[in-house]
User: Fold this.
Amino acid sequence: MKEKIMCKAKDMFLKLGFKSVTMDDIAGEMCISKKTIYKYFCNKEILVEETTERIHNDVNEKINIITEKNFNAIEENFEIQKMFKEMFKSYDTSPVYQLKKHYPMIFDKIHAKSFEFCSDNFKKNIEKGITEGMYRKELDIKTAVDFYYTLIFNINENTVYEKDAHELEIKALEYHTRAIATPKGIEELEKHLQNPNI
Assistant:
């Protein structure tokens, strides 16, 4: 039952907003008593925290699956963006923006975990791209990682609508790639930018 509650809460929080969805709303949607929810989650904040932890883990797992495939470094980044678009396409408001606005302490916890995971992935992607000849070998990798992380997370923290966030993320990815790519990498980038489904 705990899993079912989290699954329903995740969908409702993402679709309607973390703040606006109440425990009564979740109970009503599931045709269960509010008491049943409180049996597993003593308050809404705990439910939000555990739900966002689940979303964070799901995202990380999907990114790991993509990075284990045989994509080149630039293709890999576009595949990750495609995954985010698909995962959050039915939601209007950016979950990161909502979380920061209404549950800043939970946001800070998730943000700290995201920083470590994303920075490590960005670093591996750049190292892979250098090996493939897609990125310039004389790069200051740490600075490139820090710049890209700052771009992406500022977009998500400060953009209300998920659709707008995705469009800005693609622009940030293009900006990041042009800054570090070789001519071979630019050619690969242009190929992906011509895809109307990005």
Notes: The chain has ten helices and no strands. The radius of gyration is 19 Å.
